[in-house]
Amino acid sequence: MQIGEKIKRIRTTFNLTQEELGQDLHLTRQTISNWEKGKSYPSIQDIVTISDRYHVSLDELLKEDQEMLAHFESVDRQSVRQQYLYALAYCISIVCLAIGLLSRYVTLSSQVTTVAAIILLVSVITLYLTVQKPVVIYRNKWALLALAIAFLYFISQIDGIPTAVNTSFSLGMLMGSVFSLFLKMSVVYFIPQVPQLFRTKKS
Description:
This protein is mostly helical. The chain has helices spanning 3-13, 18-24, 29-37, 44-54, 58-62, 66-102, 110-130, 141-157, 168-190, 196-202.
């Protein structure tokens, strides 16, 4: 029996409509409907909640549904790939940021700094796409403090911010400075969010 059919059986046993079950689980009626029709699967957390709330063993909910088990295996593989991508982008972005900061004090070729900037852009995009538990800045005072300090430092390092933007050149310079600042601040934002792979190996 598929898990959607099991959830429907549990719902009818407790005389619940799809909307009422959805309210119990803090989900929409459409989500429950999709489960019961086999269009989507509940998350592991949803399955645990159903098991606890309606007194059904996890073994009973999970066994015999090979499609759902295959789905969770696929999700797990995708999660692992995301962790590796995040870890790679994390390391590369820090290296590229260090190159950018080093170029302020050591003469580097324009090719090196340009390539580093391009790689940094790709790395930051990858970080945003693969981060699994992003830090909420206003809830983390240390992250907020680090961003504030970094912002002040990066602003002080910008040369020649145009005071007027009446020409396309000065406007381009301003937009470039703002974009560069955004990339650097993004790296600082992600630095405290150490990849799960590193935390696992450390522990």
